[in-house]
Every structure is written in C-alpha cells, then in structure tokens.
C-alpha cells in the first residue's frame, strides 16, 4: 500500500513522457491539422448570420397633481398606460405600425383600426422573418409617477434595427399622448357633470337654510361651522399647552430634587465607587482586563444614577452593584495571587478623581437643563393663559350660535359639506381646464429621452470570444486526431521503451538510423519542403483568424478590404476567390 502513490506518480510521468514524445515526433502533422481545419473554420465563420441589437432608454413621468385628481375622483386612470405598455410598444399592431413607419411596408397595408387581419398579419410575419426582427421592452425603474423604459430590437440589418427602435418609441409616445387626451376629455365631462349637480343641490340647501330666519337680524347661521371648527382648534391648542406645561413642571421638579440631594450623595457616591488600588504590572493581562471592566461598570452606574435619575434600590442599579462587587472580589483575588515584589508605582491621580469629575459634570449639566426648563416653562405658561382667554371668548360666541334646534344644525352641516365638495370639484375642474389649455400632452405625461440608439456597427451574435473558442477547438481537435491516428498506424520502433512494450522482453538499448550522407540529404530535402509549407499554412490560419475578427469587430473595414482585394484580383484576371460583398449577415436597407 505504501508504494501506490509512487506507482501513480510513475504512471503519470510515463504518460507525460509519451505525450511529449508524440508531440515532438508528430508536430508537423499536428500543425497541418491545426492550420487547415482552423483556417477553414475561421473562414466559414465569416458566413455565419449576424444579429445586431439597438436599444433606446427613455422615461415616462406622470404629473403628480393631475394623476391624484383623476385617480381619486374619476373612473379613468393613467395606470392603464402602464398595464398595457408591452402590448402598446411591441405588440403585433405596434410592430406593424413601426415597420410601416420605416418604409418596409406600404401605408395601405394597415387598413382596420382593430385587431390585425390575416393579410396584415401575413405581411408583418414576412417582414419579421426576412429581417429576423425581435423586439422586447422592460422597466429599468418603476414607481407610481416615474417609469424608466428600455426598448431593445434585434435583427440582421443594423440600419433596420436602429430605425425600428426609433419608430416604436416615437409611435408609443404619440399613442400615449393621444390616450392621455382622451382620458382628460372624458374626465373633464365627468367633472363638469358633478359640479352642476352639486351646484343645484347647494342652491336648494341655501334656500332651505335661509327660510324662516329673516326675522333675526344680525344672525348669520353660516358662521356656526367656522366658529365650531375654531373652537375645537382652540381647545386642542389649550390642551397642548397644558400638557406641555405639566411636562415642563415635572422635569423642573425632578431636576430640582436631584440638585437638592446631590450635595449629600456626592461624598457617599465617590467613596463607594472610587477605583480600588490596582495591582502591580506583574499581575499580567488579567488585572488590566478586570480594571477596564470595573471602570465600564462604574461609568454605566453613574449614567443610571445621574442622567436617568434612578434610585439606589432600582433593579438595574442593584444588578450593576452586584456585578461591581463581583469584579472587586475578582480583582482582590488576582492581587493576592500576584508576586510579592513589584516595581514602585508611578504617581497618578488620587483615587476617586475620575468618578468625582463625572459626578460634577453631570451635576453641571442638570443645572443648565433646569435653567433652560424654567425659561421654557415661563413661555409656555404665558401661552397657556392667552389660550384660556381666547377659548373663553369663542365659547360664549359659539353658545349664542348653537342655541337653536337640531334640524337647523343638520341643515348647516349638510350645507357645509356640499360647499366643501363643490369647492373641491371646482378646483379639480379649473386645474384640468388649465392643463388642457396649456398643451395637455406636455403636462399629463412627460417623456424624456435618456439614451438615443447608437449607430450599430458590431453584431451581438456571434460573439468574438465564442467564434475564436469554437474555431480554435476544432483546429486543436484536428491536430490531436491526426497525431493519434499517425501514432496508431505507425509500426516502427522509435524508443527503447516502445521496443520493450512491443516485444515483452527487457531491452537495454537499440540502434537508430545511421547518419549517412544520403540520410542527411533526405533530411535536408524534408526541411526545404516542410518549412515553407508549414509557414504558408500558419499564415493562412492567421489571415483567416484576422478576417474573422475584423468581420465581427469592424464589419465596414472588413467589407472595404475584401472589396479592394476582389477588385485587384479581377483587374489581374482572377475572379471568384473573394465575394464582392462578404456574408456578414446584413441585407440591403430598403
């Protein structure tokens, strides 16, 4: 079992040695396979169909005021524009309108306003199939008032793809504005009907309210709503001042009580929570950790007692005291176990100075807060007295107005409700009319172009990396296949190990080919033949790869170069080697 890893390593080394030997002996044949198959693959890749993609990014912003008016008070809504966006932009009818806009079909193709007929659908399918057109739309960002829309089209002609993106976008914007005009027109008629209905009902309520009260000169029943609302507002304001005043009085009393007992509790607090003598540095890291924990507990205890004004019997304070006692006991135990000899201590601040400074700082802060609280209390007290006086005056006025029968108050309430509804509907109608007068298409829904479709020059499919990976893999596979076939069909012995494996007997050495003059002349002729042949094949491979790369990365440069080469060959009397228009997947633009 112990020799298994060594045996595996020997097998791997033997395999690598065999592979190296085969590559060294069959490199000419492998180079031929790589160059021929790779060059053919790169040349054929120029004839693969290309796909070009163009995209446009724009935003649609709905007017917030107009949207709220229509959505809250009308059966019409702008949400329909968003729910049908995909159908309106890349649906069958939208695609047919876009194809007609860019001139691929005559305008007489679209005859019916509803669903597409069989003839219209067949015409659209033929154009889409000819140019391999595809369109999709998605929302990059969507909210209640703002949508960022990305429209993308793909096809085999870059000019057609870019023109179709622009046409679909412009048609959608125009159709959206037409729909918005329809929504605004229907909404205006609906608003006008509601205003007329409320005006008639309000006129009847006015006559009912005034009838029977002409004998009371100087009394205006319509003032009861305003006085009642004002009375409730003054009561709420008076209650707010009262609550604020009570809260400030409680805060001032608490701070005064703390300051009165601060002098008596200062000495006791400092003595009790002053830091105990620390052990010498020989105590190690444990003493420093315990000291830091003790200081943290003391700071938290000071915070609870001073800022949060907790008593010494509070559960949190007692828990911190127990924790502090435990830490003090631990520190004492560590001090007893420390070595006897220790270096002299350096002079430091007296015990309790840190706690005393914290206590004094908290006491000063409480004094400043008490002063500010008293000033606020003075202002709030004056405001409370003024609110009391205003409330008393308005209560007397309100009692004079409401000393009437319940029916009168009901009529007043209904009349006030109708007035409010009429005012709301009139404001909606006036705002809608102003918007429709001032070019409603630019107010209700605004469109802004974020990214214009760029000039499409490079195909998106196939990609350069994919083409080079496939063609290189085919060339390498051909090289490996030819080397393997040559090795399998070769019956000669080229090494001692090969002889030993073939004969099954141990072989110490073998005799190679004797380097005679005839053998040297044969090797020289082989070099003179193989060197230019392999060089030409490698050059052909590099040229095919360069043409494939330029056809994908710079199609116009590739087309111009091949046209020049084809023209030169035709002038020299050679034709048919290069197509005048290389197959880049494009078709002439109509």
In short:
The chain is an alpha+beta fold and 590 residues long. The chain has helices at residues 4-25, 27-45, 64-73, 79-83, 85-90, 92-101, 118-131, 158-210, 223-273, 285-306, 315-337, 353-402, 406-437, 464-489, 496-503, 517-553, 555-571; strands spanning 52-62, 134-142, 146-155, 445-451. Helix 2 (27-45) packs antiparallel against helix 14, helix 6 crosses helix 7 and helix 16 crosses helix 17 (555-571).
Walk me through what this model shows.
The chain is an alpha+beta fold and 590 residues long. It has three domains: 17-48 and 462-553, no CATH class; 52-194 and 427-451, Alpha-Beta Plaits (2-Layer Sandwich), CATH 3.30.70; 224-338 and 350-415, Orthogonal Bundle (Helix Hairpins). Helix content is 69%, strand content 6%. The protein is built from 17 helices and four strands. The chain has a four-stranded antiparallel sheet with strand order 2-3-1-4. Strand 2 and strand 3 (146-155) form a beta hairpin. The radius of gyration is 48 Å and the shape is flat. It starts with a helix and ends in a 19-residue tail after the last helix. The relative contact order is 0.14.
**Strand sequence of the main sheet, in spatial order?**
2-3-1-4
Q: What is the CA-CA span between the terminal residues?
A: 77 Å
* Total DSSP helices: 17
How would you classify the helix and strand content by structural class?
Answer: alpha+beta
| CATH top level assignment of the largest domain | Mainly Alpha
Reported by name, the CATH topology of the largest domain is Helix Hairpins
Largest sheet at a glance? 4 strands, antiparallel
- What general form does the structure show? flat
Q: What order do the SSEs take from the amino end to the carboxyl end, as H and E?
A: HHEHHHHHEEHHHHHHEHHHH
CATH architectural grouping of the largest domain: Orthogonal Bundle
Mean pLDDT, to the nearest integer, reads 73
Number of strands: 4
